[in-house]
Please model this.
Amino acid sequence: MFKKISLFLALSFLMFQVNAQKANIQSAINYLKDNDIANAKKMIDEATTSESTKNNAKAWLLKAVIYQAIGTPKEIMPQMQFILNENPYIINLENANALASSAPNALGDATEAYKKTISLDAKYSKEELLPLLSTILGMQFNIGISKMNDNKYAEAYIAFEGVSNLAKLDNGNIWKGLPAIDTAFANAKMYQANCAFNTSKDEEAIILLEESIKSPITQNADLYIMLTDLYSKKNNEAKWSETMKTARAKYPNDKRILTNEINYYIDKGRTEESIAKLKEGIALDPKKADLYLLLGQTYLALSNPTDKNDKPTARPSNAKELEQNAITNYNKAAELDPKNSYAQFNLGLIYYNQAKIMTDEMNKADNKKFDEMKPTRDGLIIKAQPFLMKAKELIDAEGLSDSNKGMYRETLTGIMNCYNVSNKADKAAETKKIIDSLK
Model:
């Protein structure tokens, strides 16, 4: 007898709880009518966590709408309208925005609630949901663009991820037949890829970039540049080559892609290929000083090879020819960019090193040979010094920095040694003081 009473009481309690939670849903609707968003939120949060109503589609739809209102700034629109069971409702967004601290990821939470609504109601009303979802999409997209333009890539990534989550609702079926929305989703993925790249989310970036280059909507050379950079970083030569081949075929005249390819060969020490690509780049852009600098540097490296520990190894038989090629290209760079200290420094360095090699030979020779070689050696010093002096002048003008301090020290050392060879001890001493003052 007692067991039956207990069971009856337990069942009665359960029925009371179910009715109470359903009452919470209706209460939330009533509070929304009165623009009491705080209590509406409280009621619907309880309803969506209760065992009896957590699978109620209407409850999740109400939660989605309430959280969307909280996350929609009143500056965008003062009121938010929606339809529930064919009845129109209006939410005052100023009241809703006051609850922002209690829902810091309101728009993301709203998207998840819409997702739950759709999963619980296979016959959901597309006409009711599309205007609401489109508004969230527009906000998330614009937030992403704004943050990305401010170089706040981590925040922009999250915003574009919100757009991506919207695209997946009902496996994308809710958006079918809306080409403008398809464009927004594709662009959001492309921008998210850019944000992933700039925040070192390499794996995510590769996936997003690969998907973006397959889309006819997002055909952009930047995608290939980022993707080849990532494959180079991962030493995945097969994927790098495949992607670069496609990029060059699609954008044969894009100088940035060619520069990317040049840098790859240089970084990998593949000098012959880098020379070929540099010449190709110069043919496309014959007034770009940087390409001549890189070509000069490549020739100079070939003429003065080093081992893996950067120790000098035997010079090739055509070292003088390679050095002359370097000089030709450095001179062209200096002509195109007269304020480029790097070109001046390297021209001076080439002649200075040639003089140093001769000095070493002279010190091993007899007096007669020494005297025969001295005019040629001195001529090289005379050639080197003006370039080194010009490099010093240009660095002084631009100001010392971490990027040019090492070159500045080498320039001064070269100038000092030129003075020493020219028997200008006082000038050499003055230059030595400047070198010693550098920290």
In short: Strands lie at 79-84, 87-92. Confidence is low (pLDDT under 50) at residues 1-21. The two ends are 96 Å apart (CA to CA).
